[in-house]
Amino acid sequence: EEAVFLRKKITLVRAFSLLIGSMVGSGIFISPKGVLKNSGSLGFSLVVWFACGVLSMFGALCYAELGTRITKSGGHYIYILETLGPLPSFLFLWAEFFAIRPANSAVVSLAFGRYMLEPFFAPCAAPVPAVKLVSLLGYYMVLTLNSWSVTWSARLQTALSVIKLLALALIIVPGMMLLAQGHTENFQDAFDRQSLVLDKLPLAFYAGMFAYSGWFQTSFVREEVVKPERNIPLAVIVSVIMVIVGYMLTNVSYYTVLGTQDVLASPAVAVSFVQRAFKSLISVVPVLVALSCFGTMNGGIFTFSRTLFVASREGQWPPLFSMIHIRRHTPLPAVMLMFPLVTAMVCIGDIYHLMNFFSFSRWLFIGLATLGLIIHRHRHPELRSPFKVPLFVPVSFTIICLFTVAMSFYSDPVSISIGCTMVLSGFPVYYLIIHRQMSSRCRSLFYYLTHKLQLLLEVVQQEIKTY
Q: Does residue 439 register a pLDDT over 70?
């Protein structure tokens, strides 16, 4: 009885919550170990954390400008498609679907399961099968919610963003109190150069940038944001500054209470912190951290489903995934598609190997997207963007991203080679399926199956375009 399309339901507060809820998740509770291990010392790890924050701000500003120049949803995918062409955008889509997004979701899900079970098994480590089972249950809950309602997903994200900030505050406050009392012994010889290994620094940056990742989430839902020209840049700038300050204080608190050896030895840094600083909250903080991870899962599913939705609308993904449920107004097929791959990666994966595996592909394509901004400016000098950043911001961000990607081949050649192979495997698929037209028999079978699934899922193509 009414037009079927994705409604504009992302207000400024919800955009801010989406960014905070996506950035402050599992990263700050698991990445400190990876940053410290690969940077070599406490002082250099703090430098890496701050540098990652500045780099994230540069990338967020670039994406805010891209969001005012290109008015479609889809994030990295649509920016690469509009600036660099269909082949690079399909390679991103291929890598995102088969490597980046399921590995990222698996990392966050495993962190959720580990922190959720930690209070029940302390001081012992939680059994791995139990962690994976709880991880999958949490992921399936978020998947169901995003299939059911856009409004409820956005409301949950807002509520969980408040919980995330509370979890950070419970870590920051005791650390700052101890520091004010003169407990600075853990910061002696903070910049010990003997343990610095330069070829491991890209992995330290990957771990740090993973914690900040999420600053690009509003670009995935651009068509659903109210007043995007104003709200996207405003939400991006405020949220990234808040997260940089929060992460720096959180890491200082970790080191004040635990020290470098305890951070490296801990499977769950936030839990070890609470055991040392706040024994009365030993069962509270891990649950807050788990809820933070839950919010990150929710934001990830919410945004990536829009990438598949837009790619399907642009003709580079099966048309079923650009369809919307006739009553729920959610992109149901796109939301459900990640279910089997995430399940497989949670069952067989390890957090830190998964992190290196997907980080190569993610930062390669983010660097290409900001390179596209430079090209788009050159091609369309007449286009007046309501939000514009100085040219050195996209240039420096692009160079750093691509340099870090190149250096990572020396740091972890096995994981990076797997990620590179995954990207390159998209070439024959593009030329065999996207570039060439299917035969009439294959096309008939394809549309027959699409029609049957459409009836089963009760979905239709959106009736009007909102861009």
A: no
